[in-house]
Write a structure and sequence with these properties.
The complex is a heterotrimer. By secondary structure, chain A is mainly α. Chain A is 75% helix and 3% strand. Chain C contains 16 helices and six strands. Chain C has one domain (42-290). In chain C, helix 7 crosses helix 11. Chain C is globular and about 60 Å long. The chains are: A mainly alpha, B alpha/beta, C mainly alpha. Chain B: Pfam families: ABC_tran (PF00005).
Chain lengths: 321, 501, 344
């Protein structure tokens, strides 16, 4: 068996076992309704986490995601309020902006040879600050097109609603899987994550790939922002603070190595769903408090980080033996 | 000639790493490149592969002058390289490693089937039957080497440079690798083989070129060359040369400590070693023979997995450097830059470091005391620095070495290990270091000196241990210590049998 | 002394520039008055409001000097504040509240240090765990409420006045002096810098890096505990959700402004503290100068970028105009690790 796949299997197993345990206690939890809600409620997080997965696979990190989502919401809301533009061109404009923003971060990381952590920290401040400059209030979105988007769903058997947002997230995951695992760009991402020096010697274009990685993350953050705007029907500059942390947590719980070079986009989906499931369980239970979510997520993080470390050790031992 | 390097010159600050070196490689030959550390082997290779830009000379490939700008460019030109530390990505599959950058695609997506087929095709003829869709890291280093070779040959196809490819392989794996090398030779590739294992060099090479101190020393047919002569070429000693000359015998006292069956699997076979008070024990052996490994297990830099170190009072704990130091040990490592100096810190701080670490953080050495200590050693060891506050990273190699010696002298250890104490330092500093060694021993310290400079060993040692293939193989004492005898011991067993004939 | 002054000169100049800039927009910025027994005015306000970040920056400086980073300090603040508030709430008194908070901080630091020094996990990954879980733990302690209290002692820590200056200002200045003395009057500073520059060589010189790393993370936890006490005392309540939120980033920024390289090595606590004051002066200044606070983040972003540019190894080479050095650096980067006798 391929050792590298183990974290993915562990992620899926943990999700299934957790779901099983929930089901034993609350049989209602196994319904298309719950599944539909799980997908819809976590759509924006899942979309952002796909971008984050690619960044982390390359050994980087993108702290600007949460701020970019908030900026996206505010940008859409303010533009729709103050201009007569249709949402679709606004979306296109926004995605162009966030993609360029991500590309600029990538270019800085490469050009300055500085840690991604600090560069995207500046990006985090900048995106949030620009959102503040646009408005300080929560701006409602009441465009009819938005209502259409919100109400678009497919009724699954069992009366569960597979909403447009849920479908969008699943499409993003599928797209991310293709990009990461089935393109030359994706292999280059893994190569850089495995060792930048070696990757350079093997002919991987480091600069171009780095710019593209962060541009992709910016694009996905913008898309997550659109999903969040549809979900909440508002733009609020204080929204989605710390979503980058949740995205990072989802990626790690999804079995991706935080230092890069190993992981899967599919695992990230299960990471997101596991985090969502914990919240759903707490809602079902009714007596448990919401902070258990954070503690359990922290425990899962610890578990996966130690698991990865252990796998690394085993791998080394196997090779020396 | 397939590849010619004419009068290659490469300068680094303070040293001339390559001094007009000429090197020729024919198609269908395995050409070994030999030399001790600092001889210029890796600099030559890096100039050929574009990792370094040469300062002078020309490179001609297939009759055309070429100017490799980078490793990737050299590869396009036809010069591929495989390093000891496999330069592939262990986190990618074998197929991904082989096809990286040229993966077959279908409808814009990489085709797994296509990659598999291409990878199998690239590996065909290497006698390797492996699952190309597993991670490269799951395979042994030998397999990884062969995959690296397959990639390099596929991309370059003319010249293959193997830089210490066998350093971490066992005998069976070496045989497997050599099979591959022979097949490639038959296909007409020119292969440069860099190794410090003489048996392997003789087993595979057609011709041998020896470098020393950045200069070309000799190029000969391997078949006619005798091992003794080769070692002499590498080490720069002539057999006829007077030996035992200028040797200082020290008044060694009673036994200070002994290592019993001390060893670490995969690094150094269990050995016994006894050191007397006020004695210099020299250690000779080629690079990678186990000499540094011996020092590391003695000092706790690598925890031993067998044996013990004892003195008259009983067992000594050498499981970590800090504990070894507490027992009065010191170790000036071979690689000063990564293991010795703390580059950004001052000469004063570097000298005080070991003493301070030993005293613990709560008992600081007063600044004035540190300064006095530093100034004292700067004077005594003639360390060339503008002052004690100069960052040690900005000093020359010889002065850095003296700072590390000062660090240990400040501790006044009873047993000090010096690994290549005179490597890469100029002649003046060289003599001073030897003078220092004699001074230290006169003060009652015991030393273990590891060196590839045989004359230096002969000069300072009371006893010389010879290490080969990660084993202690010979011990010479008193009048037996001559460069000749050391060279014979290093070159054995074949040299010994030849002598017998 | 002149050496110290030269070391912090860039930071002092930055602070001066910020102060001048703010004074241009808000002329009354630098005036200090006396009201009753205490000093009032914007500079005093800066000293008080900057206290949490300044305290965090002390610990963060040491952690970063060892080539590490501590992302958890904001969450640790929340845990410690909650512990103190809980102790008061349970009627154990101030004598239990403060030791409990400090012990909680030390314990958090020990956990981070254990992951980094013993398990060998990358610092950024290791401290992420507590960054995520910490707020949950704090909420567990406060049971999701904002635990309010009216204990004058604890409140004093956050909003009291001693000899005219706010208590938080005394605390961070005091902690800064103690930390500065401890690291420079003992050998701790030297050993920390040594480990940060070259871990392997330090170990071979006998430095016990494991204990050292544990120590710096525990100091960082302790500093976070103090900061947590101040924030809790100031609002007379433990807010598990918002206490210390994102302050880890400000603390890292303060250290970066202070000129301590994020790659470890030489550090200066004083410079980091000035960095913390630079950040707080900007925060307060923007408010007073009549700019909407929303400019704050944009300015911070610009500041981070500027510092990045100045610290970037590549830009330094370009500035020096030495294409040669650049080339050498590239060669060094491109050169494979062919160290024949060094194996894992």
């Amino acid at each position: 068996m391929n050792v590298r796949r183990l974290p993915l299997y562990a992620t899926i197993a943990i999700f299934l076992v957790a779901y099983l345990l929930c089901w034993l206690q609350f049989p209602n939890i196994l319904s298309t309704r719950v599944v539909g809600n799980l997908l819809t409620d976590n759509a924006y997080l899942g979309i952002a986490a796909v971008g984050m997965t690619v960044v982390i696979l390359s050994g980087g990190i993108d702290l600007s995601v949460g701020s970019v989502i908030a900026f996206a919401g505010v940008f859409i809301a303010v533009l729709l309020r103050d201009t007569g533009l249709h949402p679709l061109p606004v979306f296109a404009l926004l995605l162009g902006l966030t993609t360029a923003f991500g590309a600029a971060q990538g270019a800085l990381i490469h050009a300055l040879a500085m840690p991604a952590f600090i560069v995207t920290l500046a990006g985090m401040f900048l995106a949030r600050g620009v959102a503040y400059l646009l408005t300080l209030d929560s701006v409602p979105i009441d465009h009819p097109f938005f209502e259409t988007l919100q109400k678009a769903y497919w009724l699954m058997p069992g009366k569960g609603r597979l909403t447009l947002l849920g479908v969008l997230m699943l499409l993003c995951v599928a797209g991310g899987m293709l990009l990461a695992h089935r393109t030359r760009f994706g292999t280059n991402v893994f190569a850089i994550g495995g060792g930048q020096g070696t990757a350079r010697m093997m002919g991987v274009p480091i600069g171009r790939t780095t710019v593209l990685i962060y541009a992709f993350s910016g694009f996905m953050a913008g898309l997550a922002g659109i999903a969040f705007a549809i979900y909440t029907a508002a733009g609020y500059p204080l929204a989605t603070v710390g979503v980058e942390l949740n995205a990072i947590a989802a990626v790690v719980i999804g079995g991706t190595l935080l230092s890069g070079g190993s992981g899967t986009v599919l695992g990230t989906l299960f990471g997101v769903l596991t985090m969502g499931l914990i919240q759903t369980y707490i809602v079902f239970d009714g007596t448990l408090s919401s902070w258990w979510t954070k503690i359990v997520i922290g425990l899962l993080l610890f578990l996966f980080i130690v698991l990865q470390k252990g796998l690394l050790r085993i791998g080394q031992l196997q090779r020396t033996a | 000639m397939l590849l010619q390097a004419r009068s290659l010159t490469k300068r680094f600050p303070g040293t001339l790493a390559l001094d007009g070196v000429t090197f020729e490689l024919a198609a269908g030959e395995v050409h070994a490149l030999l030399g001790e550390n600092g001889a210029g082997k890796s600099t030559l290779i890096k100039c050929l592969t574009g990792a370094y830009r040469r300062d002078g000379g020309e490179i001609v490939l297939d009759g055309r002058p070429v100017d490799p700008q980078s490793t990737a460019h050299a590869q396009e030109l036809g010069i591929g390289t495989v390093y000891q530390e496999v330069n592939l990505l262990p986190n990618l599959t074998v197929a991904e490693n082989l096809t990286l950058g040229r993966q077959p695609r279908r409808w814009g997506l990489t085709s797994r089937r296509g990659m598999r087929a291409l990878a199998r095709e690239m590996l065909a003829g290497y006698g390797l039957d492996i699952d190309v869709e597993r991670d490269l890291g799951a395979y042994s280093v030998a397999v990884q080497q062969i995959v690296a070779i397959a990639r390099a040959v596929h991309l370059s196809g003319k010249v293959l440079i193997l830089d210490e490819p066998t350093a971490s392989l066992d005998a069976r794996e070496v045989a497997m690798l050599f099979d591959v090398v022979r097949r490639l030779r038959e296909r007409g590739l020119g292969i440069v083989f860099v190794s410090h294992f003489l048996d392997q060099v003789f087993a595979i090479s057609d011709r041998i070129t020896v470098l020393r101190n950045g200069r070309h020393i000799a190029t000969t047919e391997a078949a006619g060359l005798d091992r003794l002569r080769l070692v002499n070429l590498m080490l720069g000693r002539e057999l006829e040369q007077a030996t035992g000359h200028g040797r200082t015998a020290h008044d060694a006292g009673e036994e200070l400590l002994r290592a019993e069956r001390l060893g670490k699997r995969g690094r150094i076979a269990p050995f016994d070693l006894s050191i007397r008070k006020g004695e210099v024990v020299g250690m000779a052996g080629l690079l990678g023979s186990g000499r540094t490994e011996t020092a590391e297990v003695l000092f706790g830099a690598t925890a031993a997995d067998s044996g013990a170190v004892k003195d008259r009072a009983g067992a000594i704990d050498v499981s970590t450097p800090a504990r070894a130091i507490a027992s009065g040990f010191g170790f000036a490592p071979e690689d000063r830059k990564t293991d010795g100096i703390i580059g950004d810190l001052s000469v004063r701080e570097n000298i005080a470091l070991a003493l301070q670490a030993h005293r613990g953080w709560a008992r600081p050495i007063p600044r004035a005391e540190q300064r006095r200590l530093a100034e004292d050693f700067i004077r005594r060891l003639d360390i060339r620095t503008p002052g004690p506050e100069k960052p040690v990273g900005q000093l020359s190699g010889g002065n850095q070495q003296k700072v590390i010696l000062a660090r240990w002298l400040a501790m006044n250890p009873r047993f000090l290990i010096l690994d290549e104490p005179t490597r890469g330092i100029d002649v003046g500093a060289h003599a001073e270091v030897l003078r220092l060694i004699n001074e230290m021993v006169a003060g009652g310290m015991s030393l273990l000196v590891i060196s590839s400079e045989l004359e230096e060993l002969v000069t300072v040692s009371d006893r010389v241990i010879v290490v080969r293939d990660r084993r202690h193989v010979a011990e010479l004492t008193g009048q037996e210590i001559t460069t000749d005898a050391i060279v014979r011991a290093i070159a054995a067993p074949e040299a010994a049998t030849e002598a017998a004939e | 002394m002149t050496g110290l002054l030269r070391r912090v000169a860039p930071q002092l100049l930055t602070l001066l520039a910020v102060l001048v800039l703010v004074t241009i927009f808000f002329p009354g910025f630098l005036s200090v008055g006396v009201s009753g027994d205490r000093l009032v005015g914007s500079p005093i306000d800066v000293l008080k409001r900057g206290a949490p970040v300044a305290l965090l920056a002390i610990g963060m400086t040491l952690v970063i000097a060892t080539r590490g980073i501590d992302l958890s300090v904001g969450a640790v603040m929340a845990i410690c504040g909650a512990s103190a508030a809980l102790a008061i709430d349970q009627g154990w008194g101030l004598g239990a509240a403060i030791p409990l908070a400090l012990a909680a901080g030390l314990l958090c630091g020990l956990w981070n240090g254990f992951l980094v020094a013993v398990l060998g996990i990358q610092p950024i990954v290791a401290t992420l765990i507590l960054m995520v879980a910490g707020r949950g733990i704090a909420q567990l302690i406060t049971e999701g409420q904002i635990l309010t209290f009216s204990d004058p002692g604890l409140a004093f820590l956050g909003s009291g006045t001693v000899l005219g200056l706010p208590a938080p200002a005394w605390l961070w200045i005091g902690a800064g002096i103690v930390a500065g003395l401890v690291v420079r009057r003992t050998a701790l500073g030297l050993l920390i810098e040594s480990v940060g520059v070259n871990l392997r060589a330090s170990r071979l010189a006998g430095v016990n890096s494991t204990v050292l790393l544990l120590t710096v993370y525990m100091i960082s936890g302790l500093c976070a505990a103090l900061a947590g006490l101040i924030v809790t005392g100031d609002i007379r309540g433990a807010d598990a959700n918002n206490a210390g939120l994102w302050l880890e980033l400000d603390a890292i920024l303060a250290v970066a402004i202070g000129g301590t390289s994020l790659l470890g090595g030489r550090f200066s606590i004083l410079a980091s503290l000035i960095g913390a004051m630079v950040i707080q002066s900007i925060n307060t200044g923007i408010l007073l100068a009549g700019f909407p606070p929303e400019f704050n983040l944009v300015i911070k972003a610009a500041l981070v970028l500027l510092i990045l540019m100045l610290q970037s190894p590549r830009l330094g080479d370009l500035a020096a105009g030495m294409s040669l050095r650049r080339r050498r650096a590239d060669e060094a980067a491109a050169a494979p690790r062919v160290l024949p006798e060094v194996r894992q």
